[in-house]
Every structure is written in C-alpha cells, then in structure tokens.
Amino acid sequence: MAKRILGIVGSYRRNGTIDSLVTEVLSAAQKQGAVTEKIYLLDKHIEFCTNCRICTQKPGTERGLCAHRDDMAEILDRYNMSDGIVIGAPVNCFNLNALTRRFMERLVCFTYWPWGQPGYKLRKKAAGKKAVLITSSAMPAIMGRIFTGAPRALRVIAEVMGAKPVALLFAGLSAQKQKAVLPDKMLRRAREAGRKLAA
Question: Fewest CB within a 10 Å sphere: which of 64, 174, 190, 196?
Fold first, then answer.
C-alpha cells in the first residue's frame, strides 16, 4: 500500500526556498510510489491558541478537541491519515516565523495536561510516522543551526505530533537572491530525505 506523505509549508513566500525544498522532498517521495499532498499554512484560517487548555483536559491517546472552529482540525485530520510529514518554515528573528509558531502552539491538543498537573504529557509517543524538517535563514547554515531556535522548534513539532525526524535540512544564505536558487547538494539531500519518507 502506498505511503501517504503530507507537506506543510509555513513560509509566507510561494516558490521560495522553503516551498521549493518541501516540493523537492515530496517529488522524491512520489517517485518512490508515495501519495503526497501539500498544505500552505498561509491559505488556512488558524486562530491563535488562547491557552484555555480545554483540549488538554480529557485523558486518552486521541488529540483533544479545540474550542476554535477553524481549519486546524482539517489539517490535523489529514496528518492523522498520513504515514509521514514534511514541515518547512523559515527563520525570522532567530526562530521559526510567526505563521508556523501559531500552528505550533495549537499542537497542545496532542498533550494531556489537566489543571493541577505541573506539566504536560504527550498523548502518544512516536506512532511510526516519519518527519522531514526544513528551515532556512539569511546566515550560513552552520551558524543558523547554532544561533537560531528553529531546528529545536521543528523537532518539538514533530515530537508532539508523534513523528520521528529522519532528516533536517537547513538552507543557509537564503537571502542572497530574490528568487530561490538551491545548490545541487541541497537538492540531493532533499531527494534523499523524500526517499527515506517513502521507504
């Protein structure tokens, strides 16, 4: 049976570095027989988390229900039907951009955190799903990995959603040109990551 891979683009720019890398990963997975889908967070109505924690109160392995009635539930339903996920978001101000942070904060529904409990517990550990994490910054990649919080934030997203990262792609020096020009080495790494997702 074909693997289903969901791509989530958290960038504000279509056809930019992040979008192009997510597309490359998904294309490689498709060539291995996977069925892929791509969602742009920019196109979705996602409210801010108000920290009411309604979604965290009931025990169980299924995600909690949010008080907001927006597009977040649809995105997470599609994720539940997938075998793997590609999450891409750029660095703004030394961490993930606001669009992706908004999505990230709403993932609290994957935790059990009743009032009176000092901290949250994940509703389920890695459920056999794989994740490819993608980010980019104006600084060189080696510096971005050290001085930005983006890689860790992406790992937290994957962990909370119950997916195990199989690759982290960090595209550095991405502000050198207005249109994304990805080096061959980065494209090869993206294709390799896509093949891992589909395996």
Answer: 196
Q: What local confidence, expressed as pLDDT, does residue 144 receive?
A: 85
Residues in contact with 126: Cβ distance below 8 Å, sequence separation at least 6, in sequence order: 159, 162, 163, 164
- The string of pLDDT tens digits covering residues 42-100 is 999 999 999 999 999 999 999 999 999 999 999 999 999 999 999 999 999 999 999 99
Q: How many CB atoms lie within 10 A of CB 149?
A: 13
- Kindly state the tokens that stand for 77: 């339903």
Q: Cα–Cα distance between 119 and 192 in angstroms, integer?
A: 37
Assigned superfamily of 4-198: Flavodoxin domain (3.40.50.360)
Q: Give per-residue pLDDT as tens, 108-130.
A: 999 999 999 999 999 977 668 99
C-alpha separations of 150 from 64, 142, 157, 168 in Å: 26, 13, 11, 11
- Distance, first Cα to last Cα, the chain: 12
Q: Which of 22, 23, 24, 31 is nearest to 3 (CA)?
A: 31
Distance CA 105, CA 102 (A): 5
- Domains of the chain, by residue range, sit at 4-198
pTM of the model: 0.94
